[in-house]
Amino acid sequence: MVKSRRTRELSRLELAALxxxxxxxxxxxxxxxxxxxxxxxxxxxxxxxAVYPAxxxxxxxxxxxxxxxxxxxxxxxxxxxxxxxxKTLRRWLLPPLPxxxxxxxxxxxxxxxxxxxxxxPSERLRxxxxxxxxxxxxxxxxxxxxxLLGQSGDLYSYLGGLGVxxxxxxxxxxxxxxxxxxxxxxxxxx
Amino acid sequence: MVKSRRTRELSRLELAALxxxxxxxxxxxxxxxxxxxxxxxxxxxxxxxAVYPAxxxxxxxxxxxxxxxxxxxxxxxxxxxxxxxxKTLRRWLLPPLPxxxxxxxxxxxxxxxxxxxxxxPSERLRxxxxxxxxxxxxxxxxxxxxxLLGQSGDLYSYLGGLGVxxxxxxxxxxxxxxxxxxxxxxxxxx
DNA sequence: TGTGACATGTAATATGTTACATGATTGA
DNA sequence: TCAATCATGTAACATATTACATGTCACA
Lengths: 190, 190
Known about the structure:
The structure is a homodimer.
Chain A: H1 12-24, H2 29-38, H3 48-60, E1 64-71, E2 74-81, H4 83-93, H5 99-103, H6 108-113, H7 121-152, H8 155-186
Antiparallel strand pairs in A: 1-2
The structure holds a DNA duplex (28 and 28 nucleotides).
């Protein structure tokens, strides 16, 4: 039995891609790419320049294995998880969950809040109102998409969608509070 | 009047740093770095290797201006926003808010959900229970920090903290739903 | 005949990460 | 005097982004 040498940790994209190959394999790199693009989470763009190299790295590590197949003139490479790949995924899922992953949070609208003093009181309200309107619309979109996922019978995708929905709804509630606070602070305009 | 030539867009880190200089200026790059490190949002690590170059780029663009000062042997460079910097911030805040910024969402726990089939039913519950416990603890931490921000009188920081709190609470509610769904699906073990 | 989805990649670019390195000042 | 904080940076590295490039296949 070979002791694996210490090697660099997998990036989030690599881990997510590995999980996709588990669920969808055997599948092509292109399919993985589409999953990223269609995902409700837009963290990864699903660009070819990111996905293809990531898949290659996973294969080089022996976490997935590819098999080139031919349909007429068309070649494609189908990947599936190896035993090592599954072990890696299990290590990723089983305790302990790293603190950074629990604390991770990012909202580009929230980032902007800290610069609000560059605007006049009425402009601040305009900012929040736009964010509120667009986030509400986003909630509806996510709700629809999640409902579809629920009907598709894919439990984990549905649960993922539900997570995105909860987050979007939380943003709406938060923005409503922000709006109230700004109105109170507001007073006269510029 | 000089038409500004088309130039690359500012990165999120640059924009966030610009906002920090608005709020905290005149301030040092080190101070900006500390703000990132202490922020409840852990999206940016606040590493010197990211912050110092970003501040330099902002200065080269004329969005902030620095002034080297001397206290005894100690030199430090104090930055403050320029008129152009303020204009840039206002453009960032005023409509339209880009759709990507509204849709942006990332939760490393949620990412893992899609790979849950690598675990046995009882392991899946263990995963969710750990996430739930740690996220609940996180909610308490964020609540405390946000309360302090509220007492500090810095309205925008407080509102930012409130946003993080809402998000953490939403994650707890979501994980509770996930737990229920997994128990229902669960049945027999491995 | 042409469009769009399938499929695979590369190149240029920039950004951010970790780790290293240095030195002054403050306060216990 | 020692540790922590203030303060400024650099180097190596990998990764992700956009844009480009190519070609097949199904179908209307």
